[in-house]
């Protein structure tokens, strides 16, 4: 029996390297036992030191298995490595086995992946940071007890969500540390390492009490979404029992003080109906439109944005790129696509041999929609009403520029251009005729590439994006003939 030793509980790359060595040596799953860390080997188990290191590709597997394995490797079942290798071995002779949902091994892997997904959802929902002061600086620390080894895969989510905070997440098996620039991992800890009370505890209690709706109380469903096992680590959980106990009286009080005034959103809509004097006939040039857009009051986004960000490029450009909305830098400087996503865009079109000075670049929504988080403004996706309200300006841009090719960067832009929600996967790679005679091409927004944490996935998606731009370059060359 061969003992294969892994150093980490959940390192997919480490497991894959060992599995490739086993395949190269022709090792049947029945001949292999997997060990982790300092786990003792059996008396009759040989070490894996003599396994060959393959120089090139070994076998083949569908991408579905890679995605499945990345999830399963995080599961706490000690047999996960063996089960994955058993499936990998079978895939060499049964390449379509993953299409058989009734296969027992496939079912085991699917259940493990599903359990990891549930644990991931709970972690992202129930991590609660506590504020502490370290050397005069405010920092945040959280304790969480996952069922599986999910910390490393989920830490990048928290770096994006709390990028401006100096934080640590402690779990029994490992810890993650973020210093606003770098993410690192260390050994696990215990709950006693976490302060008993933090400055933000009251905020959670107040927030939970504010969103509690006694008229929609369903205790069994609440416990399903917020399992009792997590309550001991949630500051707001202490309010659950009294809120449930008093729900009937709270509901009667709500009925007694029911409002007789229309909701604020109705009043805002009424005001917009009065404040929308823009008529298409009042604009004679694209410059007229660009001067008028900053006074737009068609939706509430203008209230917090620095300024409207209009399109930029030749007034008669043959190609128009449409993004989602201005970002933080665009909102401050009043120009489209100059932030991080704009840099990705510039690099990609340069590689495709496209001159940006020949393009008209704009956004479906002209004002920056965001939520404040500390000193930062975090992008928030515009809703259907905001997209529809801003379509007035996008239609004017298309009317004056008259592009032959319109490129939708992301689903929001595609929705603004075709008038309904569409998926990128169903429209990508094909030309769609628009009513004004232009041709629409749909691809990802450059910011999507920035958000992908996995290097392999990022490289794969960048290749797709580059291929879409090469298609556009080819279409531009056809127009020039």
From TrEMBL:
Residues 310-471 form the Uracil-DNA glycosylase-like domain. Keywords: 4Fe-4S, DNA damage, DNA repair, Hydrolase, Iron, Iron-sulfur, Metal-binding. It comes from the Bacteria. GO terms for biological process: DNA repair. GO terms for molecular function: 4 iron, 4 sulfur cluster binding; deaminated base DNA N-glycosylase activity; metal ion binding. InterPro entries: DNA_repair_put (IPR023875), DUF4130 (IPR025404), UDG_Type-4/5 (IPR051536), Ura-DNA_glyco_family4 (IPR005273), Uracil-DNA_glycosylase-like (IPR005122), Uracil-DNA_glycosylase-like_sf (IPR036895). Belongs to the uracil-DNA glycosylase (UDG) superfamily. Type 4 (UDGa) family. This is Type-4 uracil-DNA glycosylase. It comes from Devosia crocina.
